[in-house]
TrEMBL record:
Residues 219-378 form the Glycosyl transferase family domain. It holds the Pfam family Glycos_transf_1. This is Glycosyltransferase family 4 protein. InterPro entries: Glyco_trans_1. It comes from Candidatus Methylopumilus universalis. Gene3D superfamilies: Glycogen Phosphorylase B. PANTHER family: GLYCOSYLTRANSFERASE. It comes from the Bacteria.
Amino acid sequence: MKTVFFTQNVKRGGLDTFIINLISHWPGKEEIVLFCNLSHPGLSELRKKLSGKATVVAYDFMIAQDIGVKLANFPHIVRLLFRGGFWLLGFPYLILKTTRMFRCSGASRLMVINGGYPGGDACLAATIGWSLCGLGPRAWHNFHNLVLPYSANPLRRIKEKIIDWLVARAAAGFVTVSQACMLTLSARSILASSDNTFIYNGIDFNERKPELVPSCELELPTGANLILMPAVYEPRKGHSLMIRSMEKIIKHVPEATLLICGDGNFAEMSEVRCLRDDSTAAKHIILQGHRCDLPNLLSIADVLVLPSQEQESFGYTVVEAMAAACPVVVTDVGGLPEVVDDGESGYVVSHTDVDALSEKVILLLQDKRLRRRMGSAGLCRYQQKFTAERMAWDYFNLIDVG
C-alpha cells in the first residue's frame, strides 16, 4: 500500500510543521509520498526533515502563484493575456496534470493538504483528479485556515460554485484543524452538507533539546524580558496591534523586548518595519525573517504572543510554546480560544483591545511565579491534547481503509 499526500504552499510556516509532524509519526508501515510544488520556499526543509520517512516529489506544472516568476521576462501584455487565459482554462489543466501524476504514482490512497479553502487551485484539482483515477477510495480534503465566502464578483462566484460542486462530489469529506475552522464551511452552502470533522494539530517537541541563543545574535540588552511573536508578515497576524501594545508595555516593564520573526515578502516586511520605526517603542522591537530554531527561542522567552486579527484557524506556535512551558497571550480569533485555556495556560483577550493585550503581557512579565504556573499548565495541556502521535493516529484512522 502507498499513501500519498498532496500540497500546494507559498510560504514556510505552519503548514510545513503540520506535514512534518504528520508524516514523521504516521503509524502505518506503508510507503509514503508527498507531492509538493517546486516553487515552495520550504521544499528543501521538507526533504531534509522527511528523509527516510517519505519520498518528496516536486511537481513543476504551472500554478497561478508561479505565473509572475515564470513569465517575468515577457512583455506586460503577454503576462496579462496569460493570466486571463489561465483563469479560464487553468483549472481543467490542473485536473489533467494531477490525474496523470497520480496514475503514475502507484498510490492506493490520498489526502490533500490545503493551506485554506479555497486555498490552492492545485489542491482542489488534485481532489478531483484523484477521483477520476479510480485508484482507491475518495480523498479527504484537509484545510488549515478559515473558509472564505464566495466572491462578490458574479463571474468569480459562478466559477467558485462550480469548483465547489466538483470538489464536494469528489472528496470523501473535509477535515480541518479546529471546531471554529470547521464551522466556517457554512460560508459555502455547497460544502456545508459534506462530511466534515476536525482534528487538532499536534507537534513533537521532544525531537531535540533547545540550544542557547546568544544574546548578541538577537541584539538583546542585558536583563531583557523577551516577548516572542513568531508569525508570518501578514496584516492578519496583528503586528500593528502588538507594536502599539509595546508602547504601553515598556512604560511598566522598561526591560521588555519584542522579537518578531517569520516568513514574508519584501512589501509585507517593509510595512511592519515602517510601523516599528514610527513607534515610540522602536528600540525595544527586533524584526527578523523566518527562523527554524523556535525551540531555542522559546527556551529564553518569557512569554509568547499571537495577536491575530483574522484567519487564524489554530495557532501552531501557541502549542509549541505550551510544549516548552512558555506562557502565552492570544486573541479571541478562530481556533485560538480552543487551544488556550484562558486563565490557566495563558490568556485570551479581545483582538481589538490593545489595553487588555498590554495588561496581560505586563502581568506575566512582572510575575515570575505566574509565568511558571501557566507554563506548567500549558505543558500538561499539550501532553493531553496536542501531541504529534495523537494527531497522526487520528488522521490514520480517518483515511484508513483496512
